Amino acid sequence: xxxxxxxxxxxxxxxxxxxxxxxxxxxxxxxxxxxxxxxxxxxxxxxxxxxxxxxxxxxxxxxxxxxxxxxxxxxxxxxxxxxxxxxxxxxxxxxxxxxxxxxxxxxxxxxxxxxxxxxxxxxxxxxxxxxxxxxxxxxxxxxxxxxxxxxxxxxxxxxxxxxxxxxxxxxxxxxxxxxxxxxxxxxxxxxxxxxxxxxxxxxxxxxxxxxxxxxxxxxxxxxxxxxxxxxxxxxxxxxxxxxxxxxxxxxxxxxxxxxxxxxxxxxxxxxxxxxxxxxxxxxxxxxxxxxxxxxxxxxxxxxxxxxxxxxxxxxxxxxxxxxxxxxxxxxxxxxxxxxxxxxxxxxxxxxxxxxxxxxxxxxxxxxxxxxxxxx
Amino acid sequence: xxxxxxxxxxxxxxxxxxxxxxxxxxxxxxxxxxxxxxxxxxxxxxxxxxxxxxxxxxxxxxxxxxxxxxxxxxxxxxxxxxxxxxxxxxxxxxxxxxxxxxxxxxxxxxxxxxxxxxxxxxxxxxxxxxxxxxxxxxxxxxxxxxxxxxxxxxxxxxxxxxxxxxxxxxxxxxxxxxxxxxxxxxxxxxxxxxxxxxxxxxxxxxxxxxxxxxxxxxxxxxxxxxxxxxxxxxxxxxxxxxxxxxxxxxxxxxxxxxxxxxxxxxxxxxxxxxxxxxxx
Lengths: 375, 280
Prior knowledge:
Radius of gyration of chain B: 22 Å
Radius of gyration of chain A: 20 Å
Strand order of the largest sheet of chain B: 4-5-7
Largest sheet of chain A: 11 strands, mixed
Strand order of the largest sheet of chain A: 7-6-5-4-3-2-1-8-9-10-11
Helix content of chain A: 40-55%
Number of helices of chain A: 15
Oligomer: heterodimer
C-alpha cells in the first residue's frame, strides 16, 4: 500500500499546468499526520510507502521530520515497517534536509521539465520568474546525495519541441531515472501529435544509442511499453489499482482514491472514500475499483488495450470526469508511442544488444546492476 | 482527435521474457562489456544462471560459453564493441548436390547421408577459418507450420489434402558477433517435413533435404530476427559398379557429398564477403 499525505495545499511556485493550483493555503496538522500513520499501522502494517506530497511538501519540512520520527517509534515494535518518498519542486532543498533524507532513507523525486526552454515555459515562481537555474543547482545537489533520484518531467503541447533535448539534458545532468507525464489536459491539436511522433522517433534513436553504449538509465514511457510486451501480464502490476494499493490523505484527513482527486482538499469531497478516523468505505472503494476496470467497447476491441495507459483512473478522471473512459488525446498518443517503441525493441533485439537483453529479460537485472555500481 | 481501436495482426518481433525464463543460459551469451570487466557483476550473473538452470542441463557448458564470450568481448577492439550490425540478411540456399534420394524396393542406387556431427565439423571448421565464432549451446529455435513435402508416389493434388506439420528446429550454430545463425538440414531434419502415417501402399522412402532447406530458409527470412544461412545434406548416391567393393562405393559417395557440402560453404563465404558482412 502507498499512502500519499497531502501536507499542504500551499506552493512556492505557480506552474501553469498544475491540476491543483495554490489558492488558500491549508496545512495538515501534526495530529492528522500522526492519525494517518496510526491508521496505516493498523490496516497496512507491512512495508507501507508513505509519500509526502503537496502543494509543495517541503514547505512543511517540520511535519515530514516529525512524521518520520513518529513512524520510527512505531517501527520499534517490530510489527510494522515504512519507507518514505517525497515529491518536490526542489526550491527548498538544502544540505540539512538532504542529510536528514539520507539518515531516514527518504527518497526524493524532483519535478523538473528538462532544459531551460522547456522548464521555464510552465514552472515559474508565484511572481512569474524563472526557476530553471535554481532548480538545476538543487538537482545537482540532490544527485550528489541520491544518485538514483527520479526526475519527474511533464511534457505539454507547448514544450514538445524540447522533449528529446530535455531528456538528453536530464541524462547529461546525471539523472538515471526519468519519469515523464504528458500533460493530457493541455491544449492538444493535431499538429502537436505530429510533433510528438517526431520527438518519440528522436527519443528512440537516443535510447538506442545509450543502450548500445551500455549506459544505464530508465526512461518511463519506453520502459513501460517495452515491459508491457516483454513481461505481458506482469506489466499489469505497474498499472493503476485505484484505491486498492494507494490512497491519498488530504490535509483534513479525508481519504481519496488517488492524488488527483484531492485537488485543493476542499472542493472535491464528493470523491472522498472515507477519513482516517472512521476508515475507508469499503463498498465505495470496491465499486470504484470495479468501475475503473471496465472500459469502452472501442478499448476492449483494441489490440493495444492490454498495453495502454487507459487504465490510469486518475488520468481518466482528470480528462473525462469518469473513472473508466479514455480521452481521445490519450488514445492518439498511445497509438503513436506503441509502434515506435516496438520498432525500437525489435532493432535492439535484432542487434543482440547485451544491455537491452539484460535490462528487459533478466529478472535479477536490478540487483546485478546495483552490485556493479557498488563495486 | 478520436478514439480508434487498433487491429494489430502480428506480435512485435522481439520475444517475451518467457523465452529467457525457459532458457536462462541465453543470458550468459549477452553479457554487457562493462559486466565482463566487473567480476562481481559477471559472477552474479553466472550464479543466477547456474541457479536457474535445471540439473539435467549442462551447467558446465553454460559456464564455458560465458567464458568464451568474455574472452571474445575482451579481445574485441573497442571500436567493434556494440558495433551496430546491418539489417538482417538471409542467404540463399547454395545448391551443390541434389539433396534428394530414395530407399526401398526399386531403388538401385541408394543415397548416402552425412551425419549431423560430420557435417557440422566440416561447416564450422571452414567458417572458423573465416573468423566466425560459433556457439552451439543454447541456440535459438525456430518454429513454423509447413506443408508436408510431396513425394513422387503421391500427386501434388493429393498432397494438399495432408495436414500441415508443426516444425520446430533448434538452430545448429550461432555467431553472436555477427548475429548469424547457421542451420544444417540433415536427413533427420527432413523427416520433420516428410509425409508419414498416410502413405498407404508406398514402399519407397524418399528424401529431399534441399526442399526442406528452402522451406527453413524462407521461414528464417519471415522471422527476420537473425542473419542466417541454411545448408543441406547433398545426398550423393552410391552407384555400384563391377569391380568396386560396396564399401569403397559407399565411401566415395560420402566423399562426394562432403565436397558438395564444402562447395555450399564456399559459396556462402563468397556471398557474405560480397554482401559486406565480413571483410575480404
